[in-house]
Automatic annotation (TrEMBL):
SPX domain residues: 1-120
All residue ranges annotated as the FCP1 homology domain in the record: 175-343
GO biological process, one term: protein transport
Subunit structure: Component of the TIM23 complex.
Keyword set, alphabetical order: Mitochondrion, Protein transport, Transit peptide, Translocation, Transport
Topology with respect to the bilayer: Single-pass membrane protein
Top-level taxon of origin: Eukaryota
Cellular component GO terms held in the UniProt record: TIM23 mitochondrial import inner membrane translocase complex
Coiled coil segments of this chain: none
Family: Belongs to the TIM50 family.
Protein name in the entry: Mitochondrial import inner membrane translocase subunit TIM50
Function in brief: Essential component of the TIM23 complex, a complex that mediates the translocation of transit peptide-containing proteins across the mitochondrial inner membrane.
Amino acid sequence: MKFGKQLDRQLREKWRPFYVSYKRLKGILKGVAGSGRGSSTFHAALREETARCSAFFVEKLEELEATLEAAAGDGDQSAAAFVEILELRRFGFLNFMAVTKAVKKHNKVAPCTLISAASVLLHQSFFSSPRLEAMAQRAESYLQHKGKAMERFSERERPATMGGAPPGLGVMNLQAPERLTVVLDLDHTLIFSVSRKSRLWRQQADNLSWSIVMDHQPEPVCVFPRPGLVDFLQALSGGCDLVIFTAGIEPYASPIIDKIEVVSGVKFSRRLYRRDTTRCPWCATVKDLSVLGTDLARTVLLDDNPLSFSLNPANAVPVLPWTGGVEDGDYLLEQLLPVVRDLQERVDVRPYLQQKYAMSTWFSKCGVPIPGIQQAAQGSGVEDASRSFQGMQDLIDRMARRRPVVAARV
């Protein structure tokens, strides 16, 4: 099913006039030639659509805040308001998807007048609202503890996925899912670091990098934050628990993480370093998500190294590696953020991620039997595991040549 039809099926009927009209924007693009003629019409329509959507969002948010304040002690009224709050969050997500997809389509037909979806969305209240996220957290907690079923959602109106898969929320099991735990790799995913003596540092402007002093290094390290890093973290922090899991040693990684927290204003709930990784015959630094103690149904790992996923392939979001170049554009905001936003609405992220990225299949094609990997990690011993994986270097070479599908499409 095409995106437009998928989107239309998820719209809440009584709010339909206030959604960004993807159909209208797509219709305008039919008249936009490769030269960019008609692009100004698209720009104007996009501004009009997002302005209407944001105005409704702000009005509805204020209405719900007033309702909750007036409903103090009234359980039924509070429950109804909390249901509306979660629906308003989904309203924001659907509009976010519509804008992102429309802009992407525009940039294909009018490459001479490119638009950044991030620059459009960052000014919209429905894209990132700390007030809504705070209220949504209250709503999730209330619905989880009270077990209030959201009977007012019909099968079509219930929070659903953009991929067409069942949302996993039955009529009698509509408690809000717990917060998503987003585990983030550091090097080549969020940042890229080099020595200040390197040619890359000399070529790039100083204002594109951070100079960080480390106790174990004689000279400061030049760290390049990936474009959009601050906005990416701020957009996720309200509705997700953010964890850093790096294969780097703590003396190296900790000062960089400190800098990220200061610049973004976002605090990571946990930091895991090389000592927390799992040594396996095929990789010395596998990231076993079970060490977190979180619900793996609501945990996702974003990493550029596919070997990091080998113990949890169904929780993987493969990331395009970044090496400090300016060509990365808005990858974090336009490619990764939509994926994580979608996962926030799913009770169990694993079926969807396995279908989208098929990491288990990818490992199998590379010659890695996933059950064998898991058994080796669970106690069969390094010696036994080594005998089970003859020619491990050949395996790693094959994996290096065969990159998995990364989060590169909305």
